[in-house]
Design goal:
By secondary structure, the protein is mostly beta strands. The chain has two helices and five strands, in the order βββαββα. The chain starts with 11 loop residues before the first strand and ends with a helix.
Amino acid sequence: MPDESAPARPPRCVFVYGTLRRGGSNDITRLQPPPRFVGPAQVAGVLYHLGAYPGMVLGGGQWVQGEVYAIAPALESVLDAIEGLGESPGDEYIRREVAVPVLGRVLPCLVYEINPRYVASAPVIAHGDWLRAAEHSGF
């Protein structure tokens, strides 16, 4: 008799670009359930310096450096809480799904994009690398 169970869903992936990057203040590798590192990546966007953390607006002709991790649904809920994601259109972050090239393949990834109203007067991090910017600013 053929197996009629649903095919295994591929793991959800997330692109992290700020404090959730390995070595950041909210290092995703310290969270539970543990994520699986997929690889380094970059996404088209503009990175803004918001003090102790960054925010990225997708698009804009620049590149934002980050990392891709495979995550369990329970960790997605933890990430939503860290990013202060709620139900209001005025929330600081908006959860998006974007295609991210990683190690020769393109993966659909969850990305936390900053609500543009929060970066109206924030400085741009032109090189697109939060860990590099944080290292030089003492965060």
